[in-house]
Specification:
The protein has 313 residues and is an all-alpha fold. The protein has one domain: A middle domain of Talin 1 (Up-down Bundle). Helix 2 runs parallel beside helix 9, helix 3 runs antiparallel to helix 9 and helix 4 packs antiparallel against helix 10. The longest helix has 32 residues. It is globular, with a radius of gyration of 18 Å.
């Protein structure tokens, strides 16, 4: 148990170091290319911080732990939105959020999630056909990001003088190294967190939607907090939205395409609808008012607290 706790702490340190530098490198690249912070957060940063969820769910699917594969994805969406976005919006609400960048990603998220919920409710599984469809939708999402990046590039002020001094190659290498640190740190957290949880008798699904989801979402948490500290709040917000989309399309799509994922009734009836609810609480006021409020953050944190308590009960 002592070794597990020590490795858990080491994982936390690695995630903090990786998250800190990942934000700096991502913002530097955004300035160099003239890309808005929310766009780089929803693409480059979210892909890096979602790697732990992708690898954990894929490994779980091959090992036959379907509850972990599906629970991890939707648990991470709930954690990203209710805990991470809730915390950051409570500390510092987003101001002057660019509408078009947010609107199409929000619409994409809800359309995919509602379709997945309906498919899961009817079939009780995400089979290989559904998995392949999710991977195709990921390709569509990536294409839309590339196509719209030039239109969205002029929406934020560019630091032309600072961008000239940036080495693009160095920043890309930094991103890669930080992604590795996040992955190793998250694995240490998850593996040892599961060991500790099982030692005290916590069920598999509860471990998936709480311990594993929180552990694999720590990169998003650290990245979002670092973004706030450094004054890049839109990077953190974009990271949460992008990570949630990737959780659906890759974290579920890859293992579903390989082996199929049978769904537990609690995942269909609780986790998926709740993921839709918390995203609506986060995004609806922002899309209407083009800014958020601390009330949203407090409500989201309250929802997450109730969710964790109910899951354990």
């Amino acid at each position: 148990m002592v070794n597990a706790v020590l490795l858990f702490v080491v994982g936390l340190v690695l995630i903090c170091l990786g998250g800190d530098r990942l934000v700096d490198a991502a913002v530097a690249i955004a300035r160099k290319l003239g890309i808005p912070q929310i766009v780089v957060g929803a693409t480059i940063v979210s892909l890096g911080t979602t790697l732990p969820e992708i690898l954990v769910s894929t490994t779980a699917a091959f090992d036959g732990s379907a509850a972990i594969a599906a629970g991890n994805a939707f648990g991470s969406i709930i954690c990203n939105t209710a805990l991470i976005a809730g915390l950051t919006q409570t500390i510092r609400p987003s101001r002057k959020v660019e509408f078009s960048s947010m609107a199409w990603r929000s619409a994409f998220f809800f359309i995919v999630l509602i379709a997945m919920n309906g498919y899961g409710f009817v079939t009780g599984t995400f089979d290989r056909t559904a998995g392949i469809a999710m991977l195709i939708l990921f390709a569509v999402y990536a294409y839309l990001n590339i196509k719209r990046s030039s239109k969205e590039g002029g929406e934020e002020e560019k630091d032309e003088e600072g961008s000239k001094e940036i080495s693009m190659f160095l920043q890309i290498v930094t991103l890669a190294v930080c992604a590795v640190l996040l992955y190793v740190g998250a694995n240490l957290l998850v593996d040892n967190g599961i060991f500790i949880a099982k030692t005290i008798g916590v069920p598999e699904r509860v471990i998936a939607v709480t311990f594993i989801a929180l552990g694999t979402s720590l990169p998003e948490l650290v990245t979002s907090i670092m973004s706030l500290i450094k004054g890049y709040g839109n990077v953190g917000l974009g990271n949460v939205i992008g990570a949630n989309i990737l959780n659906m399309l890759l974290v579920i799509g890859i293992p579903a395409a390989v082996a199929g994922i049978p769904l537990e009734p609690s995942t269909i009836r609780v986790d998926m609808p709740l993921a839709c609810l918390v995203m609506a609480v986060l995004l609806a006021p922002i899309l209407i008012r083009k800014k958020s409020s601390r009330i949203q953050g407090v409500v989201l944190l309250g929802i997450y607290a109730v969710y964790c308590v109910v899951s354990f009960i």
